[in-house]
């Protein structure tokens, strides 16, 4: 498994809090709405939920730190 | 580009550590520079790094290529790495087995991709493209993850091994990343080391992290924990090639002597493993 659309879905899941909340409420429905196939939907339904929330939080901190560094750069 | 002929130990270059590195080159064998720090760097910085490279070998480390993906890498980023290689003249360069963007979304950090045949194929295509553009195949680094990558059909060992089989790239084995994943997902990091192809392990990262939500976050803000030094000794028992070992620290910087002591602990751990092997 994995193709650009699946990776794009994961990337959105990691950075978009509203999308993530909708997904956690209805993983299969949101996967279908994004035109992922049944295998991909099943993989997402079994997602490591705790890990998803921790990873999303960590990525948000990294993006914020990166933005801060860019503002400081000459 | 060339590799080490003996075990070497060094530190990741950061602006905050630059003066300390220059003052302690008698205890630092090699310095690792972040490729992206060179991309829009003032000429004085590049001149300084090149001057540093005349006193001590430099290796270049990319963090933003996103090579382990089913999408192609951005050639412009690889071209920027090529320019950094020209500017700094490193011995070798490396990049992570991660995806960092997809569908025009920037994740902002290194994300573990689905460990699946498609990302093995994608990584092989992307690493070949990167090698064509830069003139040298990178070393590839395993990444830490807080989430078990969705859509995976391989375990971490199987996926890493498949990529090494599919590419000419040797492994930059990050022992804190391996340790973190082992704790986070319940596998034996030592058993992974024992089954990795020994002749493909060429460089090592050591670092520290912190606990978040019961898992280990590889934040590079803390001292290297004891289990990582034990894994370094295990690598030395398993792998015969000379190793370049780099300590990574990205913030909460302690006094320089603390970092130098950690480098010395790495020297001792590797020597311990080498003795056991002998």
Can you describe what's shown?
The complex is a heterodimer of chains A (74) and B (278). Chain A has 74 residues and is an all-alpha fold. Helix content of chain A is 81%, strand content 0%. Chain A has one domain. Chain A has helices at 4-15, 17-25, 27-33, 38-45, 49-72. In chain A, helix 2 crosses helix 3 (27-33) and helix 3 runs antiparallel to helix 4. The mean pLDDT of chain A is 92. Chain B is α/β, with parallel strands linked by helices. Chain B has one domain (8-277): Divalent-metal-dependent TIM barrel enzymes (TIM Barrel, Alpha-Beta Barrel). Chain B contains ten helices and twelve strands. In chain B, a hairpin with a 2-residue loop joins strand 5 and strand 6. Chain B starts with 7 loop residues before the first strand and ends with a helix. The model of chain B has no long low-confidence stretch (mean pLDDT 96). The interface between A and B is large, with 36 and 35 residues.
Question: Which descriptors apply to this entry?
Answer:
heterodimer; A: 74 residues; mainly alpha; elongated; B: 278 residues; alpha/beta; TIM Barrel; eight-stranded parallel beta barrel; two-stranded antiparallel sheet; 12 strands
What does the secondary structure layout of this molecule look like, with pairings?
The complex is a heterodimer of chains A (74) and B (278).
Chain A: H1 4-15, H2 17-25, H3 27-33, H4 38-45, H5 49-72
Helix pairs in contact in A: 1-2, 2-3, 3-4
Chain B: E1 8-12, H1 18-23, E2 30-34, H2 36-39, H3 43-55, E3 58-61, H4 75-88, E4 93-96, E5 99-102, E6 105-111, H5 117-134, E7 139-141, H6 156-166, E8 171-174, H7 175-185, H8 189-195, E9 201-206, E10 210-212, E11 215-217, H9 226-238, E12 244-247, H10 256-277
Parallel strand pairs in B: 1-2, 1-12, 2-3, 3-4, 4-7, 7-8, 8-9, 9-12
Antiparallel strand pairs in B: 5-6, 10-11
Helix pairs in contact in B: 4-5, 5-6, 8-9, 9-10
């Amino acid at each position: 498994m994995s193709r650009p659309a699946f990776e794009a879905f994961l990337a959105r899941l990691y950075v978009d809090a509203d999308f993530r909340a909708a997904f956690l409420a209805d993983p299969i429905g949101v996967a279908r709405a994004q035109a992922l196939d049944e295998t991909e939907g099943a993989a997402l339904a079994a997602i490591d939920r705790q890990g998803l929330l921790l990873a999303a939080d960590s990525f948000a901190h990294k993006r914020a730190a990166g933005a801060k560094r860019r503002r400081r750069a000459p | 580009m060339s590799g080490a002929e003996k075990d070497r130990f060094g530190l990741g270059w950061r602006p905050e550590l630059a003066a300390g590195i220059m003052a302690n080159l008698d205890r630092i064998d090699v310095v690792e520079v972040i490729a992206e720090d060179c991309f829009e760097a003032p000429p004085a910085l590049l001149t300084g790094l090149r001057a540093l490279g005349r006193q001590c070998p430099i290796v270049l480390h990319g963090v933003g290529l996103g090579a382990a993906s089913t999408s192609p890498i951005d050639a412009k980023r690889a071209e920027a790495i090529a320019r950094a290689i020209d500017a700094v003249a490193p011995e070798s360069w490396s990049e992570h087995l991660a995806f960092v963007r997809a569908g025009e979304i920037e994740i902002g950090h290194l994300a573990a991709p689905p460990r699946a045949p498609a990302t093995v194929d994608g990584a092989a295509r992307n690493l070949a493209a990167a090698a064509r553009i830069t003139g040298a195949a990178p070393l590839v680094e395993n990444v830490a993850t807080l989430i078990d990558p969705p859509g995976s059909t391989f375990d971490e060992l199987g996926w890493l091994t498949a990529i090494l089989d599919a590419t000419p790239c040797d492994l930059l084995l990050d022992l804190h990343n391996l340790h973190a994943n082992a704790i986070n997902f319940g596998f034996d990091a030592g058993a992974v080391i024992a089954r990795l192809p020994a002749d493909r392990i060429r460089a090592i990262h050591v670092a520290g992290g912190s606990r978040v939500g019961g898992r280990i976050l590889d934040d590079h803000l803390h001292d290297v924990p004891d289990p990582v030094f034990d894994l370094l000794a295990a690598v030395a028992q398993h792998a015969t090639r000379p190793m370049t070992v780099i300590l990574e620290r990205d913030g909460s910087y302690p006094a320089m002597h603390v970092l130098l002591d950690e480098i010395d602990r790495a020297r001792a751990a590797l020597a311990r493993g080498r003795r056991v092997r002998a």
